[in-house]
Amino acid sequence: MKVTPICAQCLLERAVKQVHLATTDKDLQSRVVASMMELLEREFTVDSVPCYIGTDRDLLVQRMTGVDPYKDLKARSNEMALRILPELQMSIDMMRSPVQKFRRAALIAAAANAIEFDVAGRDFCLADFKEIVDRVESDLVVDDIEPFRRLCKQVRNVTYLVDNAGEVALDTILISQIKRLGPRVTAVVKKGPILNDATLEDAKEVGLNSIADQVMDMGAPTIGIILNRASEEFKQVLFSSQLIVAKGMGHYESITELKLPCPVVHILRTKCSPVADHIGVPRNKNVVLLRRPEHA
Hints:
Helicase, Ruva Protein, domain 3; Rossmann fold; 2 domains; seven-stranded mixed sheet; 51% helix
């Protein structure tokens, strides 16, 4: 997925918000924003991918301030998700039908993608999340859950690309349901802080290691997948996958630029207009979208 004009606004606005989280030094704030404008001038072209520029923006803010702006927010997200996790798990355990259980788990995973900060034009607070979960079914605008479930019964391995902290705790519900259908699940997080994305530290904190068969990182802190920065180990896992579950908009932006050998299930909430428009749905809706390889 390529950038649109509104992406420039979001990329710069998010840099401003991040630098204010990172430091109160006005001169440093101004220098970071100036550097971000230079970055946009260099990298923002009609062929750019939003999450690639977003990655360089975040690394620029971290490098110049020496701070991970989202560290505290990520911790709060994990705590919130762990508090609500037992209630959500119980709602699934009470269902008799395995089909219904899988559907509910996928819907929770989609709603969990709402845990995001500093998207232009969208204010999110942690208290909003329960309301989003309550209306998760009515907010679903792309429903490929049943084909997704059937694929899980046919494959031997699934690569699950995790997105945000907090969200990762609720992903354990869907990963458990996938494993019940037979495949081995490798969960992939980011290597080091980038946005509010989950790292190995977050995975350990929420118990992902005890649910997935393997937890690994991509080899780099990137929004979505940037192949020339990823580790060889991750690329081997990615390209030997029989099914990929990709959480979030960053993975959607990057994976739509790649030719992968297997079906991809995108699970996300459309938090910005460019992603929503690319999919062809409204903003702030839930999506479970199955995309098959072009050669299939």
